[in-house]
């Protein structure tokens, strides 16, 4: 049976994936790491699993179903057979792909609260008070690292649309919203400065070269940038 973990809350979905791997590793099973390169060997591994005295195999894979050829290969094993376990983690997929392709899979979706998108939509000069309030509320339910990741992604999108380009995989109405938000920044230069500051905060946190907590660093950034 296929267990598929995904969702825009990548930190939580990844955490669950690691937990499942640790759980299976502690059992007497053989862990096989699936990659795009070795997927065609699946039939051979599964044949060996059916041999007498063969050890049980559990297949783990990351970011495989974004490519059609990988989806087609894995779809063959989308059954409710409890004797065959596939644990798949996807960083970037959607509900439609999951439900349409893997109809028998056990789906574990980790979603971010909708308030994070309200917060992201409100990041522009002149909206300091609301942004600080939103950040304070969000950090009570969402990991600060996820907030930084989503902020970096949003500002990158704003820089793209400000420069006349459209981010991939976005509907026209979403691009329209981004253009409206980018316009509130006045110039692309301000967006780039904000992006650079976010990047420095992210690096400083990961390298331990700051005395500020991530929440405090974001507070300071919003106070002086918005």
Q: What are the main properties of this structure?
A:
226 residues; alpha/beta; Rossmann fold; Zinc Finger, Delta Prime, domain 3; 5-stranded parallel sheet; 10 helices; 5 strands; 53% helix; DNA polymerase III delta N-terminal domain-containing protein
- Strand residue content: 5-15%
Q: Any idea of the CATH class of the largest domain?
A: Mainly Alpha
Shape call:
elongated
Task: State the CATH architecture of the largest domain.
Answer: Up-down Bundle
Question: Rg from C-alpha positions?
Answer: 22 Å
Mean pLDDT: 88
The total strand number stands at 5
How far do the termini sit from each other? 49 Å
- How large is the count of helical segments? 10
Characterization of the model:
- There is one protein chain.
- With about 230 residues, the protein is of the alpha/beta class.
- It has two domains: about 1-110, P-loop containing nucleotide triphosphate hydrolases (Rossmann fold), CATH 3.40.50; about 115-225, Zinc Finger, Delta Prime, domain 3, CATH 1.20.272.
- The chain has ten helices and five strands, in the order E-H-E-H-E-H-E-H-E-H-H-H-H-H-H.
- The chain has helices at about 10-25, 40-50, 70-75, 95-100, 115-120, 130-140, 145-160, 170-185, 190-205, 215-225, and strands at about 1-5, 30-35, 55-60, 85-90, 105-110.
- Helix 5 packs antiparallel against helix 6 (about 130-140), helix 7 (about 145-160) packs antiparallel against helix 9 (about 190-205) and helix 9 (about 190-205) runs antiparallel to helix 10 (about 215-225).
- The model has no long low-confidence stretch (mean pLDDT about 90).
- It comes from Candidatus Roizmanbacteria bacterium RIFCSPHIGHO2_01_FULL_39_24.
- This is DNA polymerase III delta N-terminal domain-containing protein.
